Fold this protein.
Amino acid sequence: MSRSIAILGGTGPEGLGLARRWAKAGETIIIGSRDPARADDAARKLKEIVGDSAPLSGMDNPAAAAAAEIIVLTVPFSGHAALLKQIKPAIRPEAMVIDTTVPLAASVGGRATRTLGIWEGSVAQQTAELVPKGVSVAAAFHNASAELLNSDEPVECDVLVCSDQPVATAIALDLAAKIPGVRGIDAGKLENARTVEQITALLIALNIKHKGHSGIRITGLPASAYRG
């Protein structure tokens, strides 16, 4: 059954890549942006790739949040808290939020390879503090390469999902399994997101050094631990 998924920051590389993969898998995708015209243009261009009948649309961020069962945050950390405060009144009481945000420090003349400390422990825990009471939060998709998501190649990567709500974990794992090559793994409580977020800075450094699109694979777990 198709779900309505709003990808906020959806005109950036990570958001577009997730939108592309999930639209191909039959999900209803709403691309959110500060500029609704830009969001609509991104949705139109994705339809040219995925197919004109794909359920893709573009809206401004609050409208996208109000229309969705699942909200996926793919925004830079610098705008993270401000976005959540903006959309908070629009979030449905029964909605869930999947946060992909990493607290990367701003860099000059290159990509950031250092993470910032977060008072709550992780960006995902900050999100849980800022969303309306009762809205579930999962941290996931931090380490999936945006470049590969925007291609037709399998994404050879494990997605670690952290959440305090089992239903949110299950939904994020299901969405991970819809991306060819990806395996989802339940990584435990939301507080574990602080470790997962830190891995992204290392992967960026590896990509710069080796000119690649690195991901992670977790080995040695029983087959039942992997989804996908």
